[in-house]
Amino acid sequence: MSRRNTDVTVQVVNAHACPVREVLDRVAGKWSVQILVAASHGPIRFTELERGIEGISRRMLTLTLRNLERDGLVTRTVYPTVPPRVEYALTPVALELHETLLRLTDWAERNRGYIAEARAAYDAEHQPELLDA
Q1: Cis, bond preceding 80 (omega within 30 deg of 0)
Q2: Is the Cβ–Cβ distance between 106 and 59 less than 8 Å?
Q3: Pick from 55, 74, 93, 111: CA 20 to 30 A from residue 126's CA?
């Protein structure tokens, strides 16, 4: 494949995309999305998250919550009880993100048939190439 000379270099594109990619990587992660969805209805306790998110380990839940808190997407409130009660809630920015996630999942649901048909058509057209490789 030939390389065309353009005014945009790979380094310039990566420099501009890096901060956005970092944010998208964080908020689009498997566990982050599930936590954001679980906490979208109001404050939720750690154990409720742990029980409600299938397959997440206690350590991964802790790390993901800590990162979401660090990013300003989740607040952590500790109540002075014995034992201490801890609740997590979405910040206004995370609630906005949740609305965006809902739009994305709605789009995916509406278009999943189209994408399945496009994949099947592509695979049928390129199948001989795959068999020869």
Answers
A1: no
A2: no
A3: 111
Residue 100: its H or E element: helix 92-132
| Entry pTM | 0.72
Burial class (CB in 10 A: 0-12, 13-18, 19+), 73: buried
Give me the residues paired with residue 77 across strands.
Answer: 87
Question: What are the two backbone dihedrals, phi and then psi, of residue 9, each rounded to the nearest 5 degrees?
Answer: -95, 165
Q: Which residue has the tokens 């649901």?
A: 109
Count of CA atoms in the C-beta half-sphere (13 A) of 97:
23
102-133 pLDDT, tens digit per residue, is 998 899 999 999 999 999 999 888 876 655 55
- Residue that the structure tokens 């949740």 belong to: 98
Structure tokens at 36: 């954001």
Tokens of 15: 């420099």
